[in-house]
Amino acid sequence: MQIPVGLEAGVEGTVLKADVRELDFYYGAFHALKRVSMPIHDHMVTSLIGPSGCGKSTLLRCFNRMHDLYPGNRYAGGGIVLYPDNTNLLAPEVDPIEVRMRISMVFQKPNPFPKSIYENVAYSLRVRGMRNKNELDDRVESALKGAALWNEVSNRLKELGANLSGGQQQRLCIARALASDPEIILFDEPTSALDPIATASIEELIIELKEKVTILIVTHNMQQAARISDFTAYMYLGEMVEFGVTDQLFIKPQKKATEDYITGRFG
Amino acid sequence: MNAADPSTIRAVRAIIARAKRWDMFFAMLGILSLMVGVLTFSVLFLDMAIQGVPRLDLEFFTSFPSRRAANAGILSAWVGTVLVMLVTALAAVPLGVAAGVYLEEYAPKNWITDIIEINISNLAGIPSIVYGLLALGLFVYYFGFGQSILSAGLTLALLILPVIIVATREAIRAIPQSIHEGSYACGATTWQTVRDHILPYSSAGILTGVIIGMARAIGETAPIITIGALTFIAFLPTAPFSGEPPAGLFDWIFAPFTVMPIQMFNWTSRPEAAFTVNAAAAGFVLVFMTLAMNGLAIYVRYRLRKNIKW
Ligand SMILES: Nc1ncnc2c1ncn2[C@@H]1O[C@H](COP(=O)(O)OP(=O)(O)OP(=O)(O)O)[C@@H](O)[C@H]1O
Ligand SMILES: [Mg+2]
Questions:
Q1: A68 within a domain of the structure (yes/no)
Q2: Is residue A100 one of the residues assigned to a domain?
Q3: What is the domain extent for residue A156?
Q4: Any idea what the CATH number is for the domain that residue A256 is in?
Q5: How far apart are the first and last CA of chain B?
Q6: Contact A160 B307 (CB under 8 A)
Q7: What is the A96 CA–ligand 1 centroid distance (Å)?
Q8: Is the confidence at residue A128, as pLDDT, over 50?
Q9: Which of B3, B9, B29, B304 could form a disulfide with B204 if both were Cys (CB 3.0 to 4.6 A apart)?
Q10: Mean pLDDT, to the nearest integer, of A223-236?
Q11: Per-residue pLDDT for B66 more than 90?
Q12: How far is A251 from chain B (nearest CA, A)?
């Protein structure tokens, strides 16, 4: 597949982690992503905003090939190039499992497995063949610390993950996504099922996490995008309307459509 | 018109009263239909219990059938039933669960899969005697298993396979999509997802289906008669490593046998009243076995579900 050259959106002091290039995606006959292009900067938080149904989740789920799980879904052109190795994540010869090992995901509703807290986090290590007990213990602990959950659960690792509160469950899912040391973590509206306090703690966590990992987050909440992200992309009806540094996009959008959306005149 | 107007309120009450009469009518109808079913079963079961229970003693379970009703027992029948059920479970559970998992997790969604699915649902409705005929040709003669425990077990396994496949698929479908996607998002392969999530979380539903299937199989008579179970068996299959020369671990699967419902059928066809009592006693034991299995299903489901919360 011929991949178009990227935007090369050179922003001072950042390195590209991935580049979406003229990506087309179909659900059966429905054209859900139309020639979408955007850069993902390394160790930055990039947020996707836009009205419901504009294709934010669809774009996010291309990054870990989630669409491959269902029949009828089709990547129809363009691609997502991952740096530094220049792998096109969507190329048919690239194994989706390999992609998911490099890029992990946190879902909208917390989805801990009905297993213990420990096993939830250890699972992403076990699928990578890790069997050594000490190594697992260490990695689970550091992932739980990374997800700011360790202090709350260190003495109840054997309890069911589902016994935690909603916010704790979501941090457990973040720990699970973090445990395998991914290059990118995808978040699909990770706080939409949480109360304001739990939301604040997840937002804080996401800002801390960019030390370790590149973050791509879908959010419905423009204030959230403004608070936590370095870059923001505005999508509408499956198209990328505008991409820019968050502050610039919110203060001085280049496109009229973006301005209408963020000022609440539409959407 | 004002709602507080007394005549309006009266009219409204009249409408409600009329509507409630229909409520009553259908509630009564429901209770009546329920009673027909429950009462019929209760009367049948009680009648059998009153006749049969006094006949139950240890000797009844440890004696072979006999020409004299007072000496006859169900030893060969209950041992036969247990062994046949064992073969049935060992054959039907792995096959049924594997087929269910394949259809849910692996099968491409195309017309071939659709045809297979429709056929599986239809298999559940085929009269059991047809399975008996199939088994007579296939297991008894073609594979040469003879009129044995193996043939009977495999026949009943075929019979309950659709039940287990359907139960497996339903149990798998009850697992939320988000758990499924969560596993794949961790980088799991389909097999890892099946082994670590799908099977553990659906095991309660699968086991329930297995036991319901087994409870159906335990009372099946027609297909077992078709493949030639004997009605009078006064010996047990040789236990592993016993006898001269010593039997192998699995020699018993080729032994001739009888099962509980056949023993019952045999006794009911005798003219003497004493044999009817024997039949009632055996029937009581059979119903008890079935109820025990259903009780086990409920308990197992409760135990396994306790640790699964989405
Ligand atoms: N499995 C699917 N099959 C067909 N169409 C789909 C499917 N999933 C989503 N769509 C359609 O694709 C479009 C984009 O959906 P998507 O879920 O990406 O929107 P979104 O921007 O994430 O919206 P929201 O903010 O409501 O989550 C919508 O029009 C939706 O109806
Ligand atoms: Mg969405």
A1: yes
A2: yes
A3: 16-262
A4: 3.40.50.300
A5: 53
A6: yes
A7: 21
A8: yes
A9: B304
A10: 94
A11: no
A12: 36
CA atoms in the 13 A half-sphere facing the CB of B206: 24
Query: Smallest CA–CA separation between A117 and chain B, in Å?
Result: 13
Give dist(CA B173, CA A96) in Å, integer: 23
ipTM at complex level: 0.92
Does the C-beta of A32 come closer than 6 Å to ligand 1?
Answer: yes
* Overall domain count for chain A: 1
User: A10 C-alpha vs ligand 2 centroid, how far in Å?
Assistant: 29
Query: Measuring from atom 6 of ligand 1, which residue has the nearest CA?
Result: A27
Residue B206: per-residue pLDDT: 92
Give the span between the Cα atoms of B301 and B202, in whole angstroms: 10
List the one residue out of A44, A65, A70, A91 whose CA is nearest residue A232.
A44
Give residue B246's pLDDT band: very low, low, confident or very high (50, 70, 90): confident
Residues 182-201 (B) with a CB less than 8 A from some CB of A: 182-189, 192, 196-197, 201
Per-residue pLDDT for A142 more than 70? yes
* Ligand 1, atom 3: closest residue by C-alpha: A27
* Alpha carbons A84 and A102: distance in angstroms, whole number: 13
Distance CA B23, CA B48 (A): 37
